[in-house]
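Archive entry. Fields below.
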Amino acid sequence: MSQIEQDERFPKSPATGDVSPCWSCKEPLAARALFCHACGAVQPAGNLDHFTRLGVPRSFDVDGDKVEKQYLGFQRVLHPDRFVAKTAKERAIAESQAVSMNEAYETLKDPLRRAAYLLKLAGRNAAVSHDQTVNDPALLMEAMEAREQLSEAASVDEVEQLQVEAGAKAIDLIAQLSRAFAAEDYDRADTLATRFKYLRKYLEETRARRVALEDSAAEDAE
Amino acid sequence: MTTTLLQIHEPGETPEPHQAETGIAIGIDLGTTNSVAAIATDGKPEILRDKEGDGLVPSVVSYSDSLPVVGREAVIQQMRRPEAVVSSVKRLMGRGAADLKSLSGTLPYEIHGDQQVGMVRLKVAGRVLSPVEVSADILRAIKARAETALGHDVNRAVITVPAYFDDAARTATKDAAKLAGLDVLRLVNEPTAAALAYGLDRGAEGLYAIYDLGGGTFDISLLRLQQGVFQVLATGGDAALGGDDFDHALAEAALKSLRRETPTLVEAKNLLLAARRAKEILTERESTEIFGSIHGHEFRQAVDRVAFEKLIEPMVAKTLKACRQVLEDAGVQASEVRGVVLVGGSTRVPLVRRMVARFFGREPLADINPDEVVAAGAALQAEALTRGGETLLLDVIPLSLGIETVGGIVEKVIDRNTPIPVAKAQEFTTYQDGQTGMQIHIVQGERETVDACRSLGRFELTGIPPMTAGAARIRITFAVDADGLLTVGAQEKTTGVKAEIAVKPSYGLGEDEMADMLRDSLTHAREDMERRLLIEARVEAERMLLALDAALKSDGKLISPEARQAIDAAAQKLRSTLSGDDRDRIGAAVEALEKASHSFAQVRMDRAMGQALKGHSLDEVEASMATDRAE
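PREDICTED_STRUCTURE:
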């Protein structure tokens, strides 16, 4: 039993069914093959979407444990450390495979990156992927108010309270994103993802603020 | 349909037509204060010791007219002729003159004056040496010790570096190994190596924090262990904080209370050694004395543990701040950490243990000797890399990498704690009409402005075709390999012109310098390289022949007897070149065989393509692939 599973609900990929020759021994192989069954050489990473690459269904609601398990399973066989005794060319190919796996993993495990990526796959030139000005007055108002509250927070406890509230908001946004993607409402998903992006920035700011307050509290204690 | 289109091999099953070099490899902990070598056999690490049973080699080198002396002998020399002895050189690896400001006052040696660019140079016994050369001398001594202990040549090693070591310091470490005649299989982060040593012994699963306080560096890493995979979730630390700073604090406090003038260099070095001994004694006892002399006047100064702890408390607090940062980066609470592993000699200090225990809310693990645990882990990794094994280390980059943009702002290309290997590309454009060149400045760090980050190198991009401002699309690619080393490439996308890149490493050694050093010390490098290339060519050729045999056996009937004859002749020719040592001849024969078998490969491709698609829906093909994979 291989440690890597492919899911039957696998979405159709244009690459499926394609055949290309092994770079090393010219044996015909599925374009998605990781290794050549004839000579054992590791195959180049190829052009797969992140879901197909990790063998999980294309959906915003990915199973986090499954992503982890698939990622570790693939890295076990593809990481360059497995190819120390092999030729330079094979090491380079293994490295490109490991790079692609890392990118797929980083994208799918994070809800914000996953949402942006799904919008890209849906052919959207999504606002969340750009740094352009946001056309969402409610969001801008909310963001301004939140920053004001943060700058007024004078104690670590107050900042922690704001962090808890922001954390709850993040959970709510993820649930809304899930519904929007399920309904294939990509405009809504883009709006939500952009809000999520702002919330992330805000969470970082609360963190910086808390550290600053903690430091000044420590100095006062001395 | 049962045609196997895809097959995945388990690591152990991957067909291995030819085992390339099977030589053993050792693990080396190249430390600030001490260095240690170890070897692992069947998953059991063993520290390589001298006749007296000592595993630690002090990272101290004494220079004279004859060969450099490394280790305890050099420590003795340090008392007699301190101007000829170098210690704690690891703190200078990959560092430039600008970095020394943060270290000044804590360096026990003289810095060569007129070094404005590149890595700092030391003035030692009338010579000017780079930190790389000094480290190479330490590695040579370690290599010699290993060869004596094992009774044969040792040419390959896994070397550990602090997780917080940046690109320049990692490159410097690899360069030092090259000078010492060691092939580095992998640079492994010290905390990861320590986790390896602990994890394998206990079959532990879950989240672990590795707190590593050495002589000159501090690292904190958070790892998740599951089924033999060591996944680094986040890492942080301070590349200029360690037990040496405790010694300095003690020595300075002693001087201050004596209100004497500045001691000579010799006296200062001796005072530091006395402070270190006092620190060590204070681990066991409540009080001790520091002996020293200033301009010939001897003195003794009482010091107790309470006073010592008061001196170092801010430094330990600084390490805990880094611990908190790492937990937050990983989104983890201190209570979720299942174990805390202590690494590095400085974790013997009772205050460090108390504060770490309080922070994590649990007693830290320290049952493997903290001085030896890193080397033991490195040896395990060396064995896993050469002999194969189930463990896998998945590391991250410790610091964000980016590019300077307009106004001295940093545009981050790769964020810290991204798993490696990684490659990321970003597009930039020109800002002037007809602009044909571009300055690219690569920086490292978490801050938004260039001057608050560390410069890694400057690239001059030339050969951009003249266009209107903003029309060129220059794609800059950052690639970080499994050793944590960065390579940068650039290409202009609209014309496909690959622009030339000239590298000016900010703190590294120039190519010329490295070449000179190599010529001085390595006479066999070329031969080694040639040999390796020859072995690789043979492996490739043998694999090609094996695959061809199999294909001919099953599908030989697809081609004409003439074509078959041509293939057989070319294969025979290739076989005959394999016994020789001529790489070019092997390469030519491989090419000839590829040409002869080209149409055969094509026929097989067409047939496989037809089989895969003819009379079957895509779903069926897919389903058969899914089963193949799951089997």
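CURATOR_NOTE: Confidence is low (pLDDT under 50) at residues 1-22, 521-525, 615-631 of chain B.
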